[in-house]
Amino acid sequence: MVLARHPVKGAGQGQNCDTIMRMEWRRNRLSLVTLAAALSVLGAVGSAAPVLPAEDGFGFAARRIEMVRNIALHASISARETGVSEIDPRIMEVLSRVPRHEFVPEQLRELAYLDTPLPVGEGQSIAMPYLVALMTHLAAVGPGDVVFETGTGAGYHAAVLAELADRVVSVEVVAPLALVASHTLKRLGYDNVAVIAADGYYGAPADAPFDAMIIKEALDHVPPPLLAQLKPGGRMVVPLGPRRGPQILTVVEKGANGDVQRRGVLEVRFTPLQGGERI
Question: Could you say which architecture CATH assigns to the domain 2-274?
Answer without folding.
Answer: 3-Layer(aba) Sandwich (3.40)
